[in-house]
Amino acid sequence: ASSSVALEVAEGASFSVEVKAATNALRQRLAGLLQAETLCRRYPAVTGKRIDTRRLCRIEAGDARIFVREVTGLKTDTAVQILVDRSGSMGSSRGRGKSGAPRPIEVARASCYATALALKQVPGVMVAAAAFPGSQESEVIVMTQFEERVDRQAMRFASLEANGGTPMAEAMLWGAARLLEQRQPRRILLVTTDGAYDEELGQAMAARLQLAGIEPLGIGIHCDVSHLFARSRQIATIADLPQAMFELLLEAIQRPVKH
């Protein structure tokens, strides 16, 4: 029993090292992004409640923008539920490019762990992660709850293997229910998948989430998933993750929160 525990600890440590670079890169990008977006911005306007006395001299030149308006930065209070597709197709290496390239499930589990670690360290952001399907097609595997420490759950991510069908709609409904329980005004559902899913059903579910005030984002492993998610990116290895995730979250936080 002790040797089994030691093996699990060793595997967890190895997995953590594998994603460390991606986690650090993503965290640094997010920190800079959110700091910039939360700053209060001022700009001149033709109408308003407060006059900028420094611009009064511009009236003679025909510039009527003598008022000052302020736009408060975007709040970072966000809840993110990550969903990892671990269906059977995620374990296939066929058609994935060069021999020896990582399987989709390997990229997915490492990328989701790195994303969860990075987001957890951003002030105001809550994150949870789960994989689908669970032991039954209608179930999910919870890897970390919103209140849990992600770094202590490395083995849950590292042990994910591909098996079963693709109950993506059911998993998205499950994730949406968890997000709606959170108090954060912005709610994001991030799905990592190989895109092997019904286009019409996927789009319909994404539309339902948007109506509920949840922003669905997609990360395609070795594939384009724009047929399922209006905002998505494609990655082939975990090294592609920081840039892809940064771009996705940038698009998300620049949109107004829907209540």
Q: Would you kindly provide a brief summary of this structure?
A:
The chain has about 260 residues and is α/β, with parallel strands linked by helices.
Find the structural class using helix and strand composition. Answer: alpha/beta
Order of strands, main sheet, comes to 5-4-3-6-7-8
What number is the mean pLDDT? 82
Helix content: 25-40%
Let me know the number of strands: 8
**What is Rg?**
21 Å
Describe the main β-sheet briefly: 6 strands, mixed
Q: Report the span from N to C terminus.
A: 51 Å
Number of helices: 6
Question: In one word, what is the shape?
Answer: elongated
Order of helices and strands: HEEEHEEHHEHEEH
- The percent range for strand residues is 15-25%
Low-confidence stretches: 1-12
Protein architecture, described:
The protein contains six helices and eight strands; from the N terminus they run H-E-E-E-H-E-E-H-H-E-H-E-E-H. The model is unreliable at 1-12 (pLDDT under 50). It starts with a helix and ends in a 6-residue tail after the last helix. Strand 4 and strand 5 (141-144) form a beta hairpin. Helix 1 crosses helix 2 and helix 1 (2-37) packs across helix 6 (241-253). The protein is of the alpha/beta class and 259 residues long. It has a six-stranded mixed β-sheet, sandwiched between helices. The protein has a two-stranded antiparallel ribbon with strand order 1-2.
Write the layout of secondary structure elements.
Elements: H1 2-37, E1 41-45, E2 67-71, E3 78-85, H2 104-120, E4 125-132, E5 141-144, H3 154-158, H4 168-180, E6 186-193, H5 199-211, E7 214-221, E8 232-235, H6 241-253
Helix pairs in contact: 1-2, 1-6, 4-5
